[in-house]
């Protein structure tokens, strides 16, 4: 029985990047042997085990054969006769098909180190086409490593285009596509993920609501990465140039979490006002606060405000003007939230008049801040 460190941990070590998760391949073992050594089996489709102490994943070396459609349509062979080279052959990219032995020796049968040196994302074998999710996975790696100068090898891009043309991408689950998309949004160059999918002709089934070639989207996401924005903000920026209906249709298609979808809808609803930056008078601000429920969800509102700042910056809004308006919005919301609702109720107003009185008081507080 031989154990090898494989995949991303070896790749990142060779790239000089921090190694967070470590995956292991075991050659020459059986499930019974692993269990006898205290490992816990967790894999259902193929034998994966957790180490009794480190809880890291150890997978038996395996081969896979396509036997149906989609991500799960595979027959797996994890017998003790499967070699390390056979296991590495089924992997997606050469840079992910490198192993390291217990003694520190590098095993690289498919020249992944060469592709690291020359900065290529290249498929290992034609078995690449058997897993349609790899189109999205390669796009994600392109987004992760673009700042290092990595590009997709032409022959790999050709395969991705063929896979998209086959129609098999539509058989993927929304959950799988969403996981690749959300992870890509948090990479250092998230805009690259979308440009690769467009180039691979992989747009129609999952992103049809979004413009396929959108320079503004690329600019938004680039700025979001530079400012280290959170996931929900990046999703909002992805949707902010859509109509609210299209934004929600896309969120439903990919099963985006409800909180992120709600923020995306608000971003799309109000972003157009930041393109031209109309006069943000007291009534405009009060409407914005009400529609975004800034009274109860202040943190979300200010998160959205940062999103709209990027929209404005991308439309070359004067920086001093933008800073002044954002500053006034902060002051206005603070002032409006300080009105004494108990004092309003003590005047004896009832029914719909209560809401009207609160609105009037909030408007007056905002006008005092703005001087209008």
UniProtKB/TrEMBL annotation:
Keywords: ATP-binding, Magnesium, Metal-binding, Nucleotide-binding, Nucleotidyltransferase, RNA repair, RNA-binding, Transferase, tRNA processing. Residues 3-122 form the Poly A polymerase head domain. CDD domains: NT_ClassII-CCAase. Pfam families: PolyA_pol (PF01743), PolyA_pol_RNAbd (PF12627). It catalyses: a tRNA with a 3' CCA end + 2 CTP + ATP = a tRNA with a 3' CCACCA end + 3 diphosphate; a tRNA precursor + 2 CTP + ATP = a tRNA with a 3' CCA end + 3 diphosphate. Signal peptide: none annotated. ATP binds at residues 8, 11, 91, 137, 140. Residues 149-210 form the tRNA nucleotidyltransferase/poly(A) polymerase RNA and SrmB- binding domain. Its EC number is 2.7.7.72. The keyword Transferase applies. CTP binds at residues 8, 11, 91, 137, 140. Its cofactor is Mg(2+). InterPro entries: CCA_bact (IPR012006), NT_sf (IPR043519), PolA_pol_head_dom (IPR002646), PolyA_RNA-bd (IPR032828), tRNA_CCA-adding_enzyme (IPR050124). Belongs to the tRNA nucleotidyltransferase/poly(A) polymerase family. Bacterial CCA-adding enzyme type 2 subfamily. Catalyzes the addition and repair of the essential 3'-terminal CCA sequence in tRNAs without using a nucleic acid template. Adds these three nucleotides in the order of C, C, and A to the tRNA nucleotide-73, using CTP and ATP as substrates and producing inorganic pyrophosphate. tRNA 3'-terminal CCA addition is required both for tRNA processing and repair. Also involved in tRNA surveillance by mediating tandem CCA addition to generate a CCACCA at the 3' terminus of unstable tRNAs. While stable tRNAs receive only 3'-terminal CCA, unstable tRNAs are marked with CCACCA and rapidly degraded. A single active site specifically recognizes both ATP and CTP and is responsible for their addition. This is CCA-adding enzyme. It comes from Alteromonas aestuariivivens. The gene is cca.
